[in-house]
Design a protein that fits this description.
It is built from eight helices and no strands. By secondary structure, the chain is an all-alpha fold. It has one domain: Growth Hormone, Chain: A.
Length: 216
C-alpha cells in the first residue's frame, strides 16, 4: 500500500511541476505577450530550477536522518510559501516589474529588447524558480528512499524519473486541454497550492518512514 501512495505522490509532483509551467505562461502573457522571449526565459528558469533542485535533493538525501528530516521540512515549507506568493501576489508583483522595466510600449521599442528581457527574467525568478526548485528536490530523495528499501540504485533512479516524467506529461496535457479552458488561472494556482501542501506532507511522512529490511 505504501508503494502505491509513494508512486502516486511522485506522479502528482510531476504534474505540479510541468503543469505549473503552463500556468506560468498564462500569468506572463498579459504583461509580456506570448513571444519567444517569454518562452526562452520561462523554459530556462524551469530547467535551472530542475537542475538546482536535483542538486539540492541529492545533498539532502545524504544528510544524517535527523538533519535530513529538518531539511525536508524546510524545503517543503519554502515550496508551499513560494507557491502562496505566486498565488496571492503575482499580479502586483508583475505589475510592478512591468512598470519598472517597460513603462510603456513606445519606451520598450526605443530601448530594444533589454527591458523586456530584464522584466521577464525577474518575473520568472521571483514567481517560479523557488517553488519548482523545492518540488524538484524531492526526486533524488525518492530515489534514495527506494534504494534504502532494497531497490538497486540504478533501477530506483530510472523508476522514479520515469514515473515523474509520466506526471510531467500528464500535467502538461491536463493543464492545457482541461484546466485552463475551464477555470481561471488564479483559481488553479489556489489548487496547486493546496495539492502541493497535501502531497509534500504525505511524501515527507513516507520518506521519514523506516526502510524495509533488505531480503537476505
Amino acid at each position: 500500500m505504501i508503494s502505491v501512495v509513494f508512486y502516486t505522490l511522485v506522479v502528482v509532483l510531476g504534474i505540479l511541476s510541468m503543469g505549473f509551467q503552463m500556468l506560468a505562461s498564462r500569468l506572463l502573457s498579459p504583461h509580456y505577450g506570448s513571444s519567444i522571449v517569454e518562452w526562452v526565459w520561462l523554459i530556462s528558469t524551469f530547467l535551472a530550477a530542475f537542475s538546482t533542485g536535483s542538486l539540492l535533493g541529492g545533498w539532502i538525501s545524504n544528510r544524517p536522518p535527523a538533519q535530513r528530516g529538518l531539511l525536508q521540512g524546510i524545503a517543503a515549507t519554502l515550496g508551499v510559501a513560494s507557491l502562496a506568493v505566486t498565488a496571492f501576489w503575482q499580479k502586483p508583483m508583475l505589475d510592478w516589474i512591468e512598470l519598472k522595466f517597460i513603462p510603456d510600449v513606445a519606451q520598450m521599442n526605443d530601448q530594444g529588447s533589454g527591458g523586456m528581457n530584464a522584466a521577464v527574467f525577474l518575473s520568472c525568478m521571483a514567481l517560479f524558480f523557488v517553488p519548482v526548485t523545492t518540488l524538484s528536490s524531492f526526486g533524488p530523495q525518492c530515489v534514495g528512499w527506494l534504494a534504502a528499501r532494497g531497490t538497486p540504485p540504478g533501477k530506483a533512479s530510472g523508476v522514479v524519473y520515469a514515473v515523474s516524467t509520466f506526471g510531467n506529461i500528464a500535467g502538461v496535457m491536463m493543464t492545457v486541454f482541461v484546466l485552463i479552458p475551464n477555470f481561471r488561472v488564479s483559481h488553479l494556482l489556489d489548487v496547486w497550492l493546496g495539492v502541493a501542501l497535501v502531497s509534500l506532507t504525505g511524501l515527507i511522512c513516507i520518506l521519514r518512514s523506516a526502510p524495509k529490511p533488505a531480503a537476505k
